[in-house]
Amino acid sequence: MPAVTDSSSPDTSTLPPYVLALKERVAYLPEPQVARVIRAYEVGAVAHEGQARKSGEPYITHPVAVAGILAELGMDAETIIAAILHDTLEDTALSRTELAGEFGETVAELVDGVTKLDKMRFSSRQEADAESFRKMLLAMARDLRVILIKLADRLHNMRTLGAKDAPSRRRIARETLEIYAPIAQRLGMNKFKAELQDLGFRALYPDRYRVISERIRAALGNRREAMGKIEAALSTRLTADHITARVVGRIKSAWSIYSKMRNEHKSFAQLMDVYGFRVVVDSAMSCYMALGAVHGLYKPVDRRFKDFIAIPKANGYQSLHTVLLGPFGAPIEVQIRTAEMDSVAERGVAAHWAYKTDSGPANSAQARAREWLSSLADSQAHTVSSSEFIENVKIDLFPDEVYLFTPRGDILALPRNATALDFAYAVHTDVGDHAVAARVDKKLVPLRTRLESGQLVEIITAPSALPNPAWLESVVTGKARTAIRQYLKHLQHEDAVDFGHRMLDRALDALGTSLDAIPPAVLDRFLETSKLKRLEELLSDIALGNRVPHLVASQLVAARGKKSTEVQQSPHAMEKIRITGAERGVLSFSNCCHPLPGDEIIGYLSSGKGIVVHRVECPNVVELRKSPERCVAIEWDRDVQGDYRAELRIEVINRPGVLATVAAAIAAANSNIENVEYVERDAAAATLLFALEVKNRKHLADVIRRVRRTGVVSGAYRYPL
């Protein structure tokens, strides 16, 4: 591909019809900018020459169509040009340098942001998709126009999906419904969202789409007269109150009907038995006046009024929502907004883009989108795995929010089902890390309490409070999840270093030396040979089972210049390493024998998992001892805290209430039941397997004694024996 140089005003007389149509759509731009757009087409056409779409059309028709979608939104020239060239870096010989030289660095940045990472090697298609998506979101955080190009690209691909094979159609449709439609909604672009959902639904579930669409058409045909009467009544009342307004009927989409039928377990008739209208007025004050007028016409339904003008949604959406009792026995949903709010509701961040000044965003949707993207960029900086990052993004794409007040009167928007702990992390990571409780509407509540819109939330902190793994089950926001995981990984690393140090010391002790006796130069040389940067990495590797302590010890002694046979074995070499059970991420307890404090135990170094603890009498230990270099001599410390899983096999007389009797006896012994299942059962007797939480071996013995005293038990014993 030759370098791109000529940027003179192009001759448009020979342009194909689809490019002439684009030229008309971008007529709102100054003439020199229109010339640059046509030049971008010429460069793209040469770059994509010989390439065709699955439908057989020249490939260049696709990027031109994407540019046309963005032109309908009134986007600036850089966005239109980048849209025309958005596949050149990925699919053609055109280089980034050539692109920047002809059209500027901004266009090159936008095209690069949309470009996938296909040139890199990944272990799976899922990993490649996740990393490409992560790259796009980071580019999006730098410039919102990246996602606008990507959404327009996806929209045109969905419109022309028919040329793809069935598996590709389903994969692309599912990705559209799970990721791209929610992003469009998060950015306030409801028009894009609605079409992406409609096309995704049609491609993923064609039969369901057809049935629901036909029923919607039939229902609307039957109620056209009623809708006309309500619309006329609303218009007449608004005119009588001297309010200039435009009233239009609203129709639910097939996807929204299907989603509500599935998620809310409602019938089609229940969902369609609602009349929807939108009232568009000239000012915010007129919105409230119009609200009074429609409430004067039909009685409002209690607790169904929402003011998204005073408290906008997280994506910048503003409107008044109310539900009225209509004349035909069915509720009437009314949205009241200004023309400006209507534009932002339809186009979101793309509204009035061409008129945006450099001093700041043109509308609230853009300001809120930047806040969201800033939090995403912060989240990804602390998330190693692309897949985990994408999961956090999906969590943040919840369509429903709760709006909460801080003690200073600030408003925070969080996903539905968010807890006080999510709120704490939304305020600041340090507040979340040290949270102990919350006050919701001045009442003290636990951190796991779910919050509802309108509540006043205050977080109580303590310097000594720290995150724990159970918190991950209480949070729903990506920010909270990332912060908690980051802290736990830090703790795990600290514990791994400490435990690895003890294991290596013990192994060196067995060879009559110690880590302090190894010269720093020898240690540095060993680390360099092992491709490790610091001693902490070596110690962590040992604790996580990636290196065997005895082998490392022997190698260090050999590197020091002594053979292991020359050193005296220390009398302390046979001392066992003591564990408290709280060594996070380093220790795990085997499911085959469920060791408890008080049991005689042995550790086995499992690569990547660290030490897996077994009871010495566990049947699997015989096999483990065949790899003596991986067996670790350990014992319980004197002071062991926490709860441990144990299994109890109980044989009972089969009669009504027996399960409740046994459960009550277990609860009376201060033990928590995690699970219970029937192993055997007949008319006379049954065998139950209980999974319990106990403190130690003595606590389990107390549980067994209480269970045996119930009078309904013929046998109770630890399982496995």
TrEMBL record:
<keyword id="KW-0378">Hydrolase</keyword>
<dbReference type="InterPro" id="IPR004811">
    <property type="entry name" value="RelA/Spo_fam"/>
</dbReference>
<dbReference type="Pfam" id="PF02824">
    <property type="entry name" value="TGS"/>
</dbReference>
<protein>
    <recommendedName>
        <fullName>guanosine-3',5'-bis(diphosphate) 3'-diphosphatase</fullName>
        <ecNumber>3.1.7.2</ecNumber>
    </recommendedName>
</protein>
<comment type="pathway">
    <text>Purine metabolism; ppGpp biosynthesis; ppGpp from GDP: step 1/1.</text>
</comment>
<dbReference type="InterPro" id="IPR002912">
    <property type="entry name" value="ACT_dom"/>
</dbReference>
<dbReference type="GO" id="GO:0015949">
    <property type="term" value="P:nucleobase-containing small molecule interconversion"/>
</dbReference>
<dbReference type="Pfam" id="PF13291">
    <property type="entry name" value="ACT_4"/>
</dbReference>
<feature type="domain" description="HD">
    <location>
        <begin position="59"/>
        <end position="158"/>
    </location>
</feature>
<dbReference type="InterPro" id="IPR012676">
    <property type="entry name" value="TGS-like"/>
</dbReference>
<dbReference type="Pfam" id="PF19296">
    <property type="entry name" value="RelA_AH_RIS"/>
</dbReference>
<dbReference type="InterPro" id="IPR043519">
    <property type="entry name" value="NT_sf"/>
</dbReference>
<dbReference type="GO" id="GO:0015970">
    <property type="term" value="P:guanosine tetraphosphate biosynthetic process"/>
</dbReference>
<feature type="domain" description="ACT">
    <location>
        <begin position="647"/>
        <end position="721"/>
    </location>
</feature>
<dbReference type="GO" id="GO:0008893">
    <property type="term" value="F:guanosine-3',5'-bis(diphosphate) 3'-diphosphatase activity"/>
</dbReference>
<dbReference type="InterPro" id="IPR006674">
    <property type="entry name" value="HD_domain"/>
</dbReference>
<dbReference type="InterPro" id="IPR045600">
    <property type="entry name" value="RelA/SpoT_AH_RIS"/>
</dbReference>
<dbReference type="GO" id="GO:0005886">
    <property type="term" value="C:plasma membrane"/>
</dbReference>
<dbReference type="InterPro" id="IPR012675">
    <property type="entry name" value="Beta-grasp_dom_sf"/>
</dbReference>
<dbReference type="GO" id="GO:0042594">
    <property type="term" value="P:response to starvation"/>
</dbReference>
<dbReference type="InterPro" id="IPR045865">
    <property type="entry name" value="ACT-like_dom_sf"/>
</dbReference>
<dbReference type="Pfam" id="PF13328">
    <property type="entry name" value="HD_4"/>
</dbReference>
<comment type="function">
    <text>In eubacteria ppGpp (guanosine 3'-diphosphate 5'-diphosphate) is a mediator of the stringent response that coordinates a variety of cellular activities in response to changes in nutritional abundance.</text>
</comment>
<dbReference type="InterPro" id="IPR003607">
    <property type="entry name" value="HD/PDEase_dom"/>
</dbReference>
<dbReference type="InterPro" id="IPR007685">
    <property type="entry name" value="RelA_SpoT"/>
</dbReference>
<dbReference type="InterPro" id="IPR004095">
    <property type="entry name" value="TGS"/>
</dbReference>
<dbReference type="Pfam" id="PF04607">
    <property type="entry name" value="RelA_SpoT"/>
</dbReference>
<feature type="domain" description="TGS">
    <location>
        <begin position="400"/>
        <end position="461"/>
    </location>
</feature>
<dbReference type="InterPro" id="IPR033655">
    <property type="entry name" value="TGS_RelA/SpoT"/>
</dbReference>
<comment type="similarity">
    <text>Belongs to the relA/spoT family.</text>
</comment>
<dbReference type="GO" id="GO:0008728">
    <property type="term" value="F:GTP diphosphokinase activity"/>
</dbReference>
